[in-house]
Model the fold of this input.
Amino acid sequence: MRITNAEIAQLLSEIAEYLEMDDVPFKPRAYQKVADAIAALDEEIVEIHKKGGSKAISAIPGVGASIAKTIEEYIQTGRIAQYEELKKKIPVDLRSLTAVEGLGPKKIKKLYKALDIKNLDDLEKAAASGALAKVEGFGSKSVENILKGIEFVKTSGGRLILGNVFPAIEHIKDVLAKVKGVERVDIVGSARRKKETVGDFDLLAMAKDSGPVMNFFVHMDEVVHVHAQGETKASVRIKPGIDVDVRVVARESYGAALLYFTGSKAHNVALRQMAIKKGLKLNEYGLFRMKGGKEEKMIAGDTEEGIYNALGLTYVEPEMREDVGELELAQNHKLPVLVDYDAMKGDMQMHTNWSDGANTIEELAYAAMALGLEYIVITDHTKRLTVANGLDEARLLEHMKAVDAVNAKLKKEGKKFAVLKGSEVDILKDGSLDMSDAVLAKLDVVGASVHSYFNLPREAQTKRIIAAMENPYVDIIFHPTGRVINRRPAYDVDMDAIIEAAKRTKTALEINAFPDRLDLKDEYVRKCVRAGVKLSIGTDAHAVAHLSYLAWGVGQARRGWAERSDIVNAWPVEKMKKMIK
Ligand code: DGT
Ligand code: CA
Ligand code: CA
Ligand code: ZN
Done:
């Protein structure tokens, strides 16, 4: 069975957590950074290893020789001795326990020692029985928070973060596309609609004869369980715990099947109603004219566009198919022209090794250039964020000189690429910033973020963020609601008030492209678009590999009906500068 990047990343991340339990200095961060870098990697680690052994692995930025050896051990033997030893000492389900907000490795160890808590069930029981509140450091307040955290994990449970599992599904798509007789394969379902989380993956294949595809699919290396297998559809589970449905359809019905299996269900139901009103019938095989209760003639079916048009509608982009008003616009031919995936000219948030990133300014610049971008904004953390090695005023001034130096070098090489001076400034509890205005004035772009006091009451939290927007140097509020999908809920803020203040103060709001953030969520993006508030898409890259996340940010923008004119970094650098404060 193939070893996936996600699996290796998970193991390294658990090693980091175990080491943190034991107060080992530096190492936990090193392991975690490598885990993040590997999770973001496009290339399969197994392939890298096949080509160049552990040496090739250690060439990945941020990966040292010793962790590379650990990864090699796993690839060669299927186990990591160090991990198994750590796990033996404290045999807990780290993945689910750390998912509970406020439960870090140290607390998990404490609870294991005190109450033998190994998993969410144990934790919930201990919280309910009152045993938890008696453990030193766990008052009634923190028990309450833990119960809330468990509830959150449970309700979000089971859904996977699209960007994290997408490489696994794309791989399957590519393999299926090579099967003899297969003319085309598409990812459909919620993944095609770019929903931030997906319940399962759906694939559609075009082939005259479904037999060989079905047979190949259920016998793939990645498959760990076959839920169901029929003549034209099958449903399986692949590593690491992802369900995949596949259907095989003939050419003449392919558009109808694409439409049907892309969903959403609500969009489909609404379309079918429109068909009925026209005396037509729409199903996954086509659009039919009816006569005497019988299908008389298929009038569309091979393309989605043909079906929309036959129903009197303009083609609706998959990201908009949620039955939230898009069909009315399609009827009136007034759909927005969504921002294209290749429209992005810059990336507005990233971190270098000056704070908590893995790469240098220069490395990020070259990598962004290779991705076709024209500019990047370097936004290292500032001083309050000591855990991220945040910059104080003096270091930020030096950092600006370093950016100048990189720009000078690029110019000398004849490269048309700009590295902009930026910063991710901390918003303090009272809404003031942790950097002086005099220094902020020297930057091209200032982003401000909440990284502390997540639990302020709604009114105070809202006031705090609005106060930051009122600073004349703050151009963008980064990850405006602070959520981390499946891990941490958004803090309590009045988004309508924030959007109104953003409009008034001409502050852009960020769509953070990191797959487990995508903050703003689609509904808020739509509100911004409607209000005329500008959006900024930033990858928040902490390593070169994260730069490719930009596309997930664009997907989220499209789900929020954003056009190119709504996104500041879909514009060339000069125009972008004019669009921010
Ligand atoms: P998920 O998997 O929960 O993230 O969401 P989807 O949208 O991928 O849902 P899924 O996998 O259950 O089904 C894929 C698509 O198939 C769905 O978006 C629409 C279509 N579909 C499934 N069941 C029905 C149904 O009962 N009626 C209609 N009209 N369409 C359906
Ligand atoms: Ca699905
Ligand atoms: Ca499905
Ligand atoms: Zn941040």
In short: Residues 160-249 form a domain with the Beta Polymerase; domain 2 fold (CATH 3.30.460.10). Residues 321 and 393 are 47 Å apart (CA to CA).
